[in-house]
User: Fold LysE family translocator from Lactococcus hircilactis.
Amino acid sequence: MNSTTLLTYLIACVFIICAPGPSVTFLITTSVEQGKNSAYRIIPGTFLGDLSAMILSFIGVGALIHSVPSFEIVLKYVGGALLIYLGALKIYQRNKANKEKNKLFLSGFLLTFFNPKTIIFFASFIPQFVNKNENIALQFFILGTLYLVVGLINDFTYATFAHYLGKLLGQKISRMAIIFGGGFLILSGILIVLK
Assistant:
């Protein structure tokens, strides 16, 4: 793998990861609502979710899910239901949200792992940058590690920025942001189920 391929991959990772999705929305709303330390507790869960999905895709589960529709349907409904549940929780319990470390960690993991697009994404995206004439396992390790590191930096940046922005905007605007974020999670869940 040459430096040009690696740089192209890194740039692609930054653009893909930085685009806010359901997990980033959950992270932002938690940071605004409960503070950055609570949001930081979600990050190891999203990291483990990405890592688990990545490993499963590397051993062929991504191709299996893509070729056997029933697997994708199960993941789709579980992932969609989870997004709807977390979105509703954000809206209806915004001042009573659970700050337990394990529950925030678990929410982050489930949110990332049960997104059906995650495993399929890893199965189709990373192999494009692998040179078949070189050590394939080492290349997957390097590319996977780079993706996870960019993801960690992205999550910590969003969580920290959202916390201070929430303080700057005040309680009323923060509450509106939480409701909007919860609505976005619900809408994302519905779209996943309907697709």
